């Protein structure tokens, strides 16, 4: 399997997890008694996933010599 294909598959998996976390955050925030610490952890995980996705996407783009 090529490295680019592995990176694309990893990006897709991370995007799915990111979307799932977003749905969880929406559901939890709709409840009257939501745990702020839990919400903070979910948001931190979501941000970490976004950073990983961006990093992997940058690996797929060829270097541009300026």
Share of helix, binned? over 70%
What integer is the average pLDDT?
A: 90
As residue ranges, the low-confidence spans are: none
How would you classify the helix and strand content by structural class?
mainly alpha
Distance between the termini: 31 Å
Instruction: Give the biggest beta sheet.
Output: none
Rg measurement, Å: 16 Å
Integer tally of domains: 1
Q: Describe the oligomeric state of these chains in a short phrase.
A: single chain
Number of strand segments:
0
Order of helices and strands: HH
Described by the principal axes of the CA atoms, the overall outline is elongated
Beta-strand percent range? under 5%
- Helix run count: 2
List keywords for this structure.
mainly alpha, 0% strand, elongated
Give a quick summary of the entry.
The chain is mainly α and 66 residues long.
Structural features, described:
The structure is a single chain. The chain has 66 residues and is mainly alpha-helical. It is built from 2 helices and no strands. Helix 1 packs antiparallel against helix 2. The chain is elongated, with a radius of gyration of 16 Å. The mean pLDDT is 90.
Detail the topology: elements first, then pairings.
Blueprint: H1 3-30, H2 36-60
Helix pairs in contact: 1-2
């Amino acid at each position: 399997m090529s490295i680019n294909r592995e990176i694309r598959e990893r990006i897709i998996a991370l995007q799915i997890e990111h979307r799932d976390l977003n749905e969880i955050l929406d559901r939890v925030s709709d409840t009257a008694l939501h745990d702020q610490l839990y919400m903070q952890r979910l948001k931190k995980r979501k941000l970490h996933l976004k950073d990983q996705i961006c990093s992997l996407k940058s690996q797929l783009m060829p270097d541009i010599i300026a």
